[in-house]
């Protein structure tokens, strides 16, 4: 079974790896009971907490998909990775890093304390809300439409279709974004926003509301695994420097306040969202000889029951098992 | 020129790589002017700030040493890595992680705030003083002598000789350790210390005062690069799990409050000390085809002029250049 | 020279006390050089930093005015006192204290940290911005016009005329209120605001922009000195309980982060604003036998050069001298 | 019934006021059920939580004692007031205030955070542990014995007998003082301690272990009420300036993190200890005409069941009732 995509071939793997992944999904699914769906907006609360799906796409086009792989979900914080890359493409790494640092914090994703204590100082990193809103304010040139479009276009180049924004999710986020507005007004006062607060919030919430499936996420991961090069479309989408920096950020700050624990126990660059999605990236590796995807792969996971940190409980368990069994740990 | 060590061979490289490294040392040395030697105790203040030396040992025994590679210096915070491994060997990972978390903080290495705000809670990670003192209290069984010995023995197994403790440095540290005693009494009150405050402080300060050269540090890095296996002594010194966990910690928390920046710009597991030493680890890698040390290597760097974060200024510049030129970045 | 006001008499004192105050103003005026006018909006920056004026009104109607007593200025943070009293009149003390605590903090007036660290928790007191915005959201019943009017009406009852809002100041505040909006959105998320963020901010900034003179402020102080009773209009405007509570708040939190120092060195209930105004209250006292205003008095001070804490430098010096010479210290 | 003390007369009041106080004690005693005795050391835990006693001594020598007025208890944090006065007597107010500020904090009494965030900076006030330990390090001249003696002598001058130190309490405190040692080492590092950490801790814990009764505490309060003058011994023990400053501190910082609430609801200078004691001071007042103690009085209260803030629950209720009924509120 084959799918022609952009002149290159995705080949579905229905055999050994597929069955292993299927088994591991069965192992991990019960952990969903330890979490629950985000409930601050109706669309997230309605998700089925027992769902768990995965898509893996290797650098050679091999694709493994199983479980609830085709449920649509919104990017939420995974969009922080895309926004950061888009800003680096548009303005260069050094311009972006003048506005946002790349240090992990140990604070909650929506914390405002550090901005006050370390004042004057840039937001600590683009994977927390303060940093992501700052990055959103940089994007594009003129207005919020163009800013959001710069993210959608980047996704299009990686995924092969223009993503849509889930309008219901966006409207709900917009109406409950008090804490994000607090952060944004704080950033505005400190001079970090390149546009109005309302515009930055609109861009940030729209990028969070972009709808994807695990396959879209895996494809984004694949490009990162290949240092910005799209092995299926055969196109360099962003530079190796941007890719490496982004993966470093995912390791140190990608899994909210469990980033250190995830690095210690799973050991792969990843970014999670409160919708239950996880973007994971496996760079090519030298050590293992009998495991698949030696040339690297991208992984998309979806499991909407999240833990206290905001990460998919079953999704993390699944990635931990895959990493251990196939030696995906980069350290 | 060859050195027989434990029946295996270290071969000095005096050619291409050696000359490249020599040139890069010349490039990096001027950056030392941007830092200065730690001055809280006389022994550190007396160091020559313009020194810069490096030793690299590959998994195949190839060794490159140049610059001020043979200056003796004290481990300082690099000892946190050894202490953590020693505790994991003695008690198992899960026992240790019940007493110390593995999350980066963004706070100063000697900060006490987070212990109060997140109370009750373990120290955030073993690479900050609060975590390292907690780990020191676990070591060995009965008393401070035995605890220090458990670290020295581990170093002996990796380096091939029993290290000595610089008594002058220890005495100076002991007399000025007010802040560390404050941390330790706080930890004692919270029930995290397995021994008396004075004993934990003695162990911690003695491990900081262990004297090494860049070659010793490179050898420690080599064992970590090989997941706990010593490729020269041909011995598994600690488990792959401990090695991977330690390297993950070095990436997220190893370079003080510049850990995120170091991961973003250099991209290798590393741990620095205020003496100007840096322990760096290059795991085997798949991607590069014309650079050396494809099977991994350990690196020891010494450059006593440190920056505001506590990291060797010239040492970081040197590692950045090596990482870029030889594609050592793990992401 | 006499002024008939609401059937009662204000008598100007042009003699002994007047000349003493005149001399003390001369002593205090040079201290203005140690401060400078608030400069975050043009209207405040334009003030003449060397001005210093005072009006004292005793419970028997004796009035002493000298220096730049008739310069108009905006209430700024002094309005927090009026807003708090208005809310207590409308809703009762216990209703208000469920929404705002009465503890001093030691933090900056516009700090957001404590809201996050002590979450869930009410704003610490109504004399910091977070508390004052919360109080502003309670006022009146239906809309921002009515809320502002409830403050203006209370001032009218104490001062004898309906105050006007300085529109230029309000517009400037409105456009630069990023930090206050950050606070208000934070409070909104925590459920402490009884109206929309924009409405609460509008009310708060309008109350800050109310224009007064030292005589108006002294009259407000006089009512507080008499436990809510207006000795000239002969009317109980608010209860003794509200007056006592308000004066306690002024002592513990009224002078920004120098409240403790002001209590220690001056010892009278007072509230300052960044416009350089100070409202001070002298309750009746038993101890002194040869000083004036034994039955209490209200004091209005104006001196626009403020210190790092936000208090009028010369104004504080003047009050310190008066308190010492006439034994106004309540402790 | 009369007691001759230092040539002056204490007269017991057995009539109207006595019976009122007796009734109010009955009203307040049940509130003890809402608290519990401090349990960090055995001696405090053994206290009878239902006890409640009071002693009031007026400036004219009138004494009212009822309830469990003669139970001995240790000063604990009440000693912070005595230590502060002793340091001001020995070194002058300005010397002391260079080492400790007089600002309330809103933080826990044993908090260490503010020392780090506001570094470099003095401890915020002498009523929190950090400030009290700093003050203890100043006392006397040469050693810990002399430092403790300077406090005991001051108590002797006010109370008429040399107080004893409860050795059991001191030993228990000494062994569990981890948090205080953490604070002291922090202060040492910052250069605020005038002696060794162990010496400062010994002095501080010994002053906390001084044993008193409500009558002793009332006598101390009486001297403060009279601005440093002892109306019975007819002696000026410390200056009016020191007395006023101390009373201001008691109002802004004396009742732990409920100081603001106590000022708002009771309105008198007071200092509590975790043993359940409260020192309260009523300055002479002008307003009331039919209540007793118009010339001021000192009050000692004992009720060992304390609330979450560390204040005697029943004791605070009793003082609130007395203040309301007899209009003791100073505001």
Oligomer: homotetramer
Beta strand count of chain A? 13
Structural class of chain A: alpha+beta
CATH architecture of the largest domain in chain A: 3-Layer(aba) Sandwich
What's the SSE pattern of chain A? EEHEHEEEHHHHHHHHEHEEHHEEEEH
Principal-axis shape of chain A: globular
Residue fraction in strands of chain A: 5-15%
Query: How big is the Rg of chain A?
Result: 18 Å
Number of domains of chain A: 2
Distance between the termini of chain A: 35 Å
Kindly report the CATH topology of the largest domain in chain A.
Beta-lactamase
Strand order of the largest sheet of chain A: 1-2-5-4-12-11-10
InterPro entries (chains A, B, C, D): Beta-lactam/transpept-like, Glutaminase
Protein name (chains A, B, C, D): Glutaminase
Subunit structure (chains A, B, C, D): Homotetramer.
Enzyme class (chains A, B, C, D): hydrolase
Quickly list its features.
331 residues, alpha+beta, Beta-lactamase, 2 domains, two-stranded antiparallel ribbon, globular, disordered N terminus, Beta-lactam/transpept-like (chains A, B, C, D), glutaminase activity (chains A, B, C, D), acetylation (chains A, B, C, D), EC 3.5.1.2 (chains A, B, C, D), Glutaminase (chains A, B, C, D)
